[in-house]
Amino acid sequence: MPRYYRPTSRADALTALAEEDGRGWPLVGGTDLLVGLRHHAIEPSVIVDLKGITDLPDPITVTDSSITVGPTLTMGQLSRHRVVRRRYPALVEAALTVGSVAIRNRASLIGNSCNGSPAADTVPALLVHDVLITIEALEGERTVPLGDFFLGPRRTLCGRHELVTRIELQRPEEGASSAFCRLTRRRGVDLATVSVAASVDREDNVRLGLGAVGPRALRAQFGLPLTSVDEPAVVATLDRELGVATPISDVRGSKEYRLGMVRVLAKRAVLAAAQRREQETPL
Q1: Would you list the DSSP string of 190-257?
Q2: Distance CA 253, CA 70 (A)
């Protein structure tokens, strides 16, 4: 059984992780950690509980230009936040698909990103915005664009001796909006077979975040004349841009099924974001 340690400062937590030679594991919500422990997919020597740390960033800080999220912000808190619901509707929709109500009241947004799962629900919705992620070690901190953070399945830039201490989302342009769509095998708690987030600005520039169709969450950016979204040229544009998707076949769906459904969900998400933009209706 792993040891349990509850530090009161970031320095203490980082020291504890550094001393374990890669076998320490941070705990915030624990919704994925506990599953990994139960199935012996994760076998840490020590679990470092971050909830007693007094010098972590606040769960959420709002300014005129951005929103900064700390490690302890839960999916439930995120989905209820008034400013997040207005500025980042796709992120709220994605957070509301995570597990059950009980899970959302424990699972953290940062933890969902740090797992590095290609099927993480909130990551595609983050990727359609300008997002920076800050990684801290005993030697100091570094901040990188979120798109550079993911290296492959369950692999990120955050080492086992480091912590992600904040995610900063830049405020979208006025007149832009977003939407999120997900496909699962069944209703209820399940991993995504395919997920797509889309953002659309006033100039019909589109950003897509794609989940469960590659070794990591993917991003695409292009222009799309949304006044004629059913024209063959528009469908061809989507098909071309979605060429970045390289899904595999597994228990949740075949490669061919995923390739077909990512196109269906991309069009739905783009249309929903465009409609939300025109109606200016926050969640």
Answers
A1: ---SEEEEEEE-TT-EEEEEEESSSSS-EEEEEE--GGGTTSHHHHHHHHHHGGG-----BTTB-HHH
A2: 34
CA distances from 30 to 27, 53, 61, 195, 218 (A): 6, 16, 23, 23, 25
Q: How do residues 241-276 score in pLDDT, each as one tens digit? A: 999 999 999 999 999 999 999 999 999 999 999 999
- By the 10 Å C-beta count (0-12 exposed, 13-18 middle, 19+ buried), 140 is classed as exposed
CB atoms within 10 A of CB 190: 15
CA distances from 211 to 99, 117, 186, 204, 230 (A): 16, 9, 17, 22, 24
Q: What is the DSSP string of 135-199?
A: EEETTEEEEEEHHHHEEETTEES--TT-EEEEEEEEPPPTT-EEEEEEE-SSSSS---SEEEEEE
pLDDT, position 232: 72
pLDDT, tens only, 178-224: 999 999 987 656 789 999 999 999 999 999 999 999 999 999 999 98
**Domains, in order of start, for the chain:** 3-52 (3.30.43.10), 60-170 (3.30.465.10), 177-279 (3.30.390.50)
> Which of 281, 241, 232, 231 is CA-nearest to residue 263?
241
Partners of 217 in the β-ladder: none
Bridge partner list, 197: 180, 209
pLDDT tens digits, 4-24: 999 999 999 999 999 998 899
pTM score: 0.93
